[in-house]
Amino acid sequence: MDLQSGVKLAANLKLLPADENGKPKLGFAFIAMFNPETIAISEDINWKFHDVSGTQGQSVEWVNTKYRKFNIDIMLDGTGVSTNGIKVPVTAQIALFRKTTTSVEGADHKPNHLILQFGIFIVHCVLSSSTVTYTMFDAAGLPIRAKISASFAEVTQQGLMKRLAMLSSPDLTHKVTIKEGDLLPLLTYNIYKNQDYYLQLAKVNKLKNFRKLIAGTEITAPPIAKT
Question: pLDDT for 196-223, tens place per residue?
Fold first, then answer.
């Protein structure tokens, strides 16, 4: 492999072993021979819907946002066409992929966490599943081309998740901008998960007509007293 090919390969998609905090650690790294043409990213959000007394429609309560999932196809070639005649066996490339992503490593006795890096796309993740499809064989029946269809799940640190959850806590003061059609009982429910506080919220914000809120007005939602 010449210098130009080596430089090009260094810029390709990488899977680096990492610890549970997403910090790279010593181990076998996998570098894709070809960059993927597409990366499919899926996100799921869980909502809980409630009927609100005295109003039409429903209110919605955020339950959680699930981890992002990534689906990537990694092409493998053992013919030497893409490496200036140097043949890297497909079986060896698959073994390295498995060593990086699925082998039970070290004292933890579980597969590695991973850092997936492709250009500016960098994510802390784990491998969820992978399927190897062999697409070409030599005269002896050995695979010389294959595709790994891999699914990864993003890992978010628990400390970060707790800090994000705190931002929506009813124990903190919130600023809310009124939108056209907003109703104070519904806003109160969305903040405190209890619409019974809407009269207190109107009093705190000195709302003269809480049945007809003015769009663009900012109201303050104070924390609930522990008593």
Answer: 788 888 888 888 887 788 888 888 888 7
Between CA 122 and CA 115 the distance in angstroms is 7
Mark 155-180 as b/e (b = at least 16 C-beta within 10 Å): beeeeeeeeeeeeeeeeeebebebee
Find how far residue 190's CA is from the centre of its chain.
Answer: 25
C-alpha–C-alpha distance, residues 158 and 74, integer Å: 30
Q: Report CA 98 to chain centroid distance, whole Å.
A: 22
Model pTM?
A: 0.63
Across all residues in the chain, what is the average pLDDT?
82
pLDDT, tens digit, 9 for 90 and up, residues 64-103: 778 889 999 999 999 987 767 778 899 999 999 999 999 8
Question: How big is the chain by its Cα radius of gyration, in Å?
Answer: 27
DSSP for 160-188, please give it. HHHHHHHTT-TTS-EEEE--TT--HHHHH
Give residues with Cβ within 8 angstroms of 46, minimum separation 6: 62, 63, 64, 65, 66
